[in-house]
Amino acid sequence: MKTFKSYVDNPDEDENDEEIKKRASSFFQNDLNPHLLPGEKTVTEADSVLCFVPFTEKKQGISGKLFITNFKLTFLTGDRSSYDQQNRRQRNKLIDDGDIPLTNIESIYQVVSGGKRKKLLPNTTVSTLTKYLEIHCKDFRTHVFGFKFTPKDQIKKITNAVIHYAFPSKSWLLYAYEYAKNLQPTGNGTVSNTPLYSNADDWERELNRCGCTKWNVCDVNRGYCVSQSMPERFVLPMNLMSYDELMKAASQFNENRLPAWCYTHTNGASLVRMAEMYAESELADYVGNLKTAIQLADVNKGYPVEMDLTKLCPSLKDVQASYERLKELIFIDSGKDFAVQDISWFSSLEGTKWLTCVSQCLKVACDAAKHLENHTVIIKEPDSRHYCCLISSLVQILLDRHFRTRLGFQSLIQREWVAMGYPFQREGCLVQDSSKSNTEYIPLFLLFLDCVWQLTQQYPSGFAFSETYLVTLWDSVHMGIFETFLFDCCHQRSRYHIDARWQQRLFLPSTWDWNVQFSDDDQSFFNNPLYVMKTNPDVNEALNKAKYLQSSLRSKIPTQELYSYELQNLEGSNLCIDGTKSLKGYRLTPLTGAACMKLWTQCYLRWQTPAQIIGGGNPSQYLQQCVMVEEILCLLHKIEALKKNSAKSANSLARTRSDLVFSMALDTPRTTELLANTYLSSSFPFSSVQRLSREEKSVFTPISLFLEHSTIDYDYSNDDD
């Protein structure tokens, strides 16, 4: 990494020093070109750009070229020493470390000579020369570029190009349109086994899984003739009304959004989402019949509990304001500002009210889940497209362990958010609508992910996925090429898929096809080792036996007798080996008070270098848990080999796979080198450690050291020794 001294920040002092310019220009190469995806084109470029290292007060940076394409802003350097291949963090196949997808850019700030700083708004043109360009991204990362040695005409072009392409005014100007022209269909309704709810079969399977017999899939919205913001197929009570009556009833709801089924509990009560009704009219009887049908669909025949989310949840404006205050706390790249802010960190965090919003949403979800154990619950808001998505998802996670697995969680988001019409494009400000004055970013999906993360902290073995998975999912929302989070509703998605000009049907990948972005090595960080221990039959049995062996030594009862007795008791009770309720019908009852909420540091602070814990933090615990699981599986494999009493038989035994990070070395020897050369911080695997000297490396912890005192070898083929 090239280091630029104080002359970078003092242009007047050395403005006429040709030697400095000559030295600076020697750092650059003009033959650099970005890696382009299908349909991606370079728009403009700027030479001799400085990319500053965060928290170095703009005194250290890398020299290179800055490119703008119709997909991303990318920085490339000819200084090959700046590419730290050994310490690579999570490696995305679609973008490199120096790439910023344009849909990930939240705001742009221009700093001119004299230090004046202003925010660049959409649909504006910059005529003044830019000294520094600050890019604030939706993943809470800040990029700062300097243009001291860049030709003046290139500075203006690159600045205006960023504004124009980062804030498109029409959806068809998004790069995804060009990208889709070069892709082929990926499947027939499912991607990586995740249902897309684009056909009746997906809905039917979910109804059958819930044991739901009084609701059925209807296609009253075929061709989006009733509501353009709802899917063509959704679930309504059986034997409800005629088609004409449904049409009349739909006209009484905001956006013609009929009440729709979300979930049926094991007791037969259902969770229903409903939009706000218009003022009373002569058609009120049809609405009454609809509510009666919902009541009759409950086997308990009790009157439904209605929960008005506009009164119970924080307003969208409050969430917006809280998010803006949170950004002010996070978006800093100066060591001095960090030190000043650190003095009043807790009071500033409390002032954002972000954790209060998280607490409120969790409390409402817990109340709804409690009501659902006795009555059908109707959650309602003006359009049933915002908090209905969030609360219905949380309720199902609390009540049903299926949604705590990766497949279940993804299917839940696909059904309750994507299919039911959460406006990702509008609320994510992917397209700037000049006709609307309010274009503020509404981070409701981030609020949902934060709520889920809080649950994973209170129930660390209750979820199959890790916090790294949740953070990566948040990053994928802003990639801008996945159809999952690109549109406002199914109707908009269906129109986007047809290119009338070329008579061509377009296809975009789904976020749930993780192989598009990551290798198996990187996806292994998505899995939770504590959940593997809790649900893997081999590991679970081994832990049970170990527990009862210890108990038998204390009570002097034969181990097998005690184990059999306790196992019988476990089968007839609701307890697991860890003392919690069994996974079957296990309802989470989290603490929802504000005092129990934590800041999701891996998501919000991963790019703040002074906040990183070197060699520690949650990743350190996570990796140690992975080692523990692998050791148990390794020992179980050796025990089975000893039972066979034959080395030949042992070699033929298939070892149980955990799909955790250290198990990936089974098939990919390349992982060994990665583990040996990757250094750990609390921001792992996102924020890579800067290039280290030999002395500095002693402070850090290579991941391979977690295996130093374990029984796991890199060469797993030697398990019979």
Describe this structure in words.
This protein has 721 residues and is α+β, with helices and mostly antiparallel strands. Helix content is 38%, strand content 12%. It is built from 26 helices and 20 strands. Strand 1 (42-52) and strand 2 form a beta hairpin. Residues 1-16, 26-30, 83-88, 565-584, 691-698 and 713-721 have low confidence and may be disordered.
Q: Give the strand content.
A: 5-15%
Question: How is the largest sheet built, in terms of strand order?
Answer: 4-3-2-1-8-7-5-6
Characterize the largest beta sheet: strand count, sense, and whether it forms a barrel: 8 strands, antiparallel
Shape, please? globular
What class do helices, strands and sheet pairing give? Answer: alpha+beta
User: What are the segments in which pLDDT stays under 50 over at least 5 consecutive residues?
Assistant: 1-16, 26-30, 83-88, 565-584, 691-698, 713-721
List keywords for this structure.
eight-stranded antiparallel β-sheet, alpha+beta, disordered C terminus, 721 residues, single chain
Please specify the SSE layout and strand pairing:
Layout: H1 18-25, E1 42-52, E2 61-69, E3 72-76, E4 99-101, E5 105-111, E6 117-120, E7 132-137, E8 142-146, H2 152-166, H3 175-180, E9 190-191, E10 194-195, H4 200-209, E11 215-218, E12 234-237, H5 243-250, E13 260-264, E14 270-275, H6 284-296, E15 305-308, H7 309-312, H8 316-330, H9 335-343, H10 345-352, H11 354-372, E16 377-381, H12 387-399, H13 406-419, H14 424-427, H15 444-458, H16 467-477, H17 490-496, E17 498-499, E18 504-505, H18 520-523, H19 529-535, H20 537-555, H21 559-571, H22 601-604, H23 618-644, H24 647-652, H25 670-677, E19 679-680, H26 694-697, E20 701-702
Parallel strand pairs: 14-16, 15-16
Antiparallel strand pairs: 1-2, 1-8, 2-3, 3-4, 5-6, 5-7, 7-8, 9-10, 11-12, 13-14, 17-18, 19-20
Helix pairs in contact: 5-6, 8-10, 11-12, 11-15, 12-13, 12-15, 15-16, 19-20, 19-23, 20-21
